[in-house]
């Protein structure tokens, strides 16, 4: 999708908001598109248009979210653009070149990563944490940042603080199980892909979320 079509979608949404008497609380450019936060006076729904042609419509299920998704799907049907539905209860992962963390500030998302894939004695551990607009500010206040910038004692204490604030799920794959899985798939990236997918599936049993961010652990081929 080029910039002119992206702008056309933004302008069309602004017109739809005005017709319905809703309000745009804030809006901003992000690395891979444009974000608007909309309210009908009762609920707030973030809407993100990506340059890929996808729309991400979040917020609590309700009339505002339903009408926005219906508007978007109708617009895609009548605009002649390729049919890319609004993301609902599904996983959406942008390629690493676009998924700059700062782009998703204020958007509910699940962040995932793994550790220990090169360890000989310890387990492979895959973790997922759900963050929304409210917990994001609290995590910032705690000093959450790249673990490489933290000492071990602080990381251990912070892990408990994060688990108290945010829904999370951790999957340890002990060496015996790791070897069994590797013998089956014969490929570390496939094993990691399975682990991330399973962790995300279990995480989505805890929370409703449209967006998951995963660090790239293999080349795109």
Please describe what this structure looks like:
- By secondary structure, the protein is α+β, with helices and mostly antiparallel strands.
- The protein has two domains: 3-79, TATA-Binding Protein; 101-214, 2-Layer Sandwich (Nucleotidyltransferase, domain 5).
- It has helices spanning 3-20, 63-79, 133-142, 152-165, 175-185, 188-203, and strands spanning 23-30, 33-39, 44-50, 55-57, 109-115, 124-131, 168-173, 212-214.
- The strands form two sheets. A four-stranded antiparallel β-sheet has the order 1-2-3-4, covered by helices on one side. A four-stranded mixed β-sheet has the order 7-6-5-8.
- It is elongated and about 60 Å long.
CATH superfamily of the largest domain: Ribonuclease H-like superfamily/Ribonuclease H
Kindly report the spatial arrangement of strands forming the biggest sheet.
1-2-3-4
CATH class of the largest domain: Alpha Beta
Count of separate DSSP helical elements: 6
**Strand fraction:** 15-25%
| Rg of Cα set | 20 Å
The main sheet comes to:
4 strands, antiparallel
The overall pLDDT average reads 81
Percentage of residues assigned to helices:
25-40%
């Amino acid at each position: 999708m080029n910039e002119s079509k992206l702008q056309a979608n933004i302008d069309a949404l602004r017109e739809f908001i005005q017709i319905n008497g809703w309000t745009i609380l804030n809006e901003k450019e992000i690395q891979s598109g444009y974000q608007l936060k909309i309210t009908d006076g009762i609920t707030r729904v973030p809407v993100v248009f990506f340059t890929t042609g996808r729309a991400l419509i979040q917020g609590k299920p309700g009339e505002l979210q339903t009408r926005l998704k219906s508007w978007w799907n109708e617009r895609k049907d009548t605009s002649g653009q390729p049919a890319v539905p609004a993301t609902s209860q599904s996983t959406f992962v942008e390629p690493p070149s676009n998924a700059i963390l700062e782009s998703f500030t204020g958007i509910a998302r699940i962040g995932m990563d793994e550790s220990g894939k090169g360890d000989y004695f310890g387990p492979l551990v895959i973790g997922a944490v759900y963050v929304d607009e409210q917990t994001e500010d609290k995590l910032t206040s705690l000093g959450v940042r790249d673990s490489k910038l933290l000492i071990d004692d602080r990381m251990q204490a912070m892990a408990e603080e994060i688990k108290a604030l945010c829904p999370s799920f951790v999957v340890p794959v002990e060496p015996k199980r790791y070897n069994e899985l590797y013998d089956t798939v014969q490929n570390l990236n496939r094993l990691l892909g399975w682990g991330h997918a399973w962790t995300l599936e279990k995480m989505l049993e805890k929370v409703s979320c449209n967006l998951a961010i995963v660090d790239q652990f293999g080349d795109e081929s």
